């Protein structure tokens, strides 16, 4: 806890919520924290996260690297600010009920990750509690109002959907990066047919030879994601139904 009774926020979040003075070493005319973050994101969008550095951002903005340190302590902090700002590109969710709204919310996150793959490289060392990140989470929480779930359950549901989307997105990203680098891609069904003997793994053997999971070109990533999303939504629906019965 801070001496004034406020909870100490992680680096980056303290800037976003005005808990730390911006430009405390003397602001540089014409330079702002927002401009720094926007330029860092522009670089990442165009060239990937590896191209982002304090020196590169400063150069593109026409300032010295030391000028940036008046606003941001280090690159790690800049990355956290980029993570929060990336939520600003998320679309408004659509739908007439909680299920369609949550589906729209999750697909919106998936679409955002496809457009900005560098997000999947960001180290997640602070909670998603910046203003823009909270605005995105609020949409999903609001979709669950009136469902009978407790506030804690609703927050858990939102976290589950986000974790699932991030996990699926990261696997798709890793596969894409490997392909771009000339790595060998493998058809999972073909691998299973080679190693899953029928008498030891009868269920796996059956699905491997059924043809239902054949996907040699990796074209089924989105379909796989949507299938898992519907399974999760089915589980949420069952929990909401139990909550309605108990009330």
TrEMBL record:
Pfam families: TetR_C_1, TetR_N. InterPro entries: Homeodomain-like_sf, HTH-type_TetR-like_transc_reg, HTH_TetR, Repressor_TetR_C, Tet_transcr_reg_TetR-rel_C_sf. Residues 53-72 bind DNA. One of its GO terms (biological process) is negative regulation of DNA-templated transcription. Keywords: DNA-binding, Transcription, Transcription regulation. Gene3D superfamilies: Homeodomain-like, Tetracycline Repressor, domain 2. Residues 30-90 form the HTH tetR-type domain. One of its GO terms (molecular function) is DNA-binding transcription factor activity. This is TetR/AcrR family transcriptional regulator. The lineage of its organism: Bacteria, Bacillati, Actinomycetota, Actinomycetes, Propionibacteriales.
